[in-house]
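no rush on this but wanted to send it before i forget. what follows is a protein written twice so to speak, once as letters and once as structure tokens for the fold. mainly i need to know what kind of three dimensional shape the backbone takes. thanks a lot i owe you, the record is right below.
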Amino acid sequence: MSPALRCVVLIVAAGSGTRLGAGIPKALVPLPGGATILEHCLQGVDRSHQGSHRGRLVGVVVVVPPDPAAAERLEQVCASAAERTGLPLRTVPGGRERADSVRAGLSACAALGDEPGAAAPVTHVLVHDAARPFVPPAVFQRVEDALEAGAAAVVPAVPVTDTVKTVAPWADTVKAPGLAGTGSEPAPFQVVDTPVRAALRAVQTPQGFELAALLRAHESARRAGEDAAALTDDSMLMEAAGHTVAVVNGDAESFKITSALDLALAAAVLQERSATSPQTA
């Protein structure tokens, strides 16, 4: 059993949002009602740490784009959220790739525990995508409970519903069945394996870690010259460092906003929440 958590939520909000096609950083894209994706994400963090869970949260670090103009707009959103919720909140510029941004954020998380007046060092970090603004409080709590029980790394995940194929580049010497003599180009990939679906999970955020262990794992990857673009989540680094990664139940509402279709889904979630929330007189 680990001691009581002193946890920082690290929100990665440095993405350009190119695939979303909005022309602004993804975290600044407004959702129905006017609040941005980042505002919804910060509200979710606050809701997840009410009552007895509040004492676990030392602060929030938001990684913003390296571009000063984009960073300034996100910093304004963060300042308003900090004033409204009372959360200790810091921003830090990110890097070119997600892994670079996380490394910058982790250093800021550790520094929160070293500030004058800090009760004790930060022990754990929850690395969270700003683009997942609707994560239910229960998911945060399941991740934190697993950390408190002694796990060094925890990810929330949901079962995979599609059949997944492992593919490889099509060999030049292999002819595509049914395409011989048609003049058609062969497919660029071919299936080499079909994993058993029951053993697969789609991983979400927040992902929870011992802060010191994750800092070491990132530093080891940096020294080894690993391709930052290939590090799509932080649990990969903990696996490589020999840590067991615990899995807890995620949630369908923890989906990541990446495309215009995801924005439509976000609008539906907000409409459903509005319809089921208590109405004030």
